[in-house]
Write a structure and sequence with these properties.
Helices cover about 10% and strands about 45% of the residues. The chain has about 290 residues and is mostly beta strands.
Length: about 290
């Protein structure tokens, strides 16, 4: 009976971690000797899971994750490997998963020995608007350099802001968001951004992000803690504009459409003037 109670207790208190092996062996990675993992290996991968790369002989080296010859979306440039570090992890975003399933993974770097790669349990709540998530240590002028590929396919007209989430639970830190070094590359800082205990928000109202990113290959987030302990940045999330469910159409274009137009009382309208109507079950503002 005691053994049964012990088994039940262990099952109730143990976290079951699932993992899927991608590759295992010994591969001397450098910029001319990339370790490639085929796309089929990611057939069952999901958004929010983490990919882990294990290695040896890596102190002081740099690792990057690529795909199809370019940076893997949702990853950062120049991931430096510190003493006693034997692995690195990234968390799968929607953009990253699409690229992995299409082109697979390329593990690149300055010179280390890869020993294993796998994916498994990671973070919950990673939605389609999350372009990066993980844990990035912010201390004295640390800089997270997010690959521009993380924004592939983004229609910037649909978004009003970018939020930079942290676990700091405070607002007394310096943050700079840049596309390149120098004043002409600066998009915002703690004086122009909305600072809350959860995130720093960069408004895009007066920023043409497509133009800002056109001539660079990364978005940089630089931080310096003013006081207190260092902390992690945990996510970069795009904030969509609010939608009312009502579309604007010109009166001229509506007259030539094959759609049947009704007024709000449900009566069919042949020549719509300016106002609110129902077209294909949706409210449309004719103007």
């Amino acid at each position: 009976m005691k053994k049964l109670f012990l088994f039940i207790f262990l099952m109730a208190t143990t976290t079951i971690v699932s993992a899927t092996d991608l590759w295992e062996g010994t591969h001397a990675v450098n910029w001319d000797n990339t370790l490639t993992i085929e796309a089929a290996k990611f057939a069952d991968a999901q958004v929010g899971q983490k990919i882990v790369v294990e290695f040896t002989n890596a102190t002081g080296e740099v690792i990057e994750l690529h795909s199809n010859g370019g940076m893997l979306p949702g990853t950062r440039y120049e991931h430096h490997i510190y003493a006693d570090q034997s692995s690195m992890e990234v968390f799968i975003t929607t953009g990253m998963l699409a690229r992995l399933k299409e082109s697979g993974l390329e593990i690149c770097g300055t010179g280390f020995t890869a020993t294993k790669a796998w994916y498994g349990d990671g973070k919950e709540g990673v939605d389609d608007n999350t372009v990066w998530t993980g844990f990035f240590w912010m201390d004295e002028w640390s800089t997270l350099e997010l690959a521009k590929t993380s924004f592939d396919g983004v229609n910037w007209s649909d978004y009003k802001a970018i939020r930079f989430y942290s676990e700091a639970n405070r607002t007394n830190y310096v943050i700079n968001v840049l596309t390149k070094w120098g004043d002409d590359g600066k998009l915002g800082d703690q004086n122009t951004m909305t600072m809350t205990n959860e995130y720093a928000e960069l408004s895009l109202e007066n920023i043409d992000m497509a133009a800002k990113l056109a001539e660079v290959d990364r978005l940089m987030v630089q931080c310096n803690k003013e006081d207190g302990d260092p902390f992690n940045f945990t996510a970069i999330v795009l904030v969509k504009k609010e939608t009312t469910g009502i579309r604007d159409l010109s009166v001229q274009s509506s007259s030539s459409t094959a759609d049947v137009v009704y007024n709000l009382q449900g009566c069919k309208v042949t020549k719509a003037t300016k106002g609110l109507y129902i077209v294909n079950g949706k409210k449309i503002m004719m103007r």
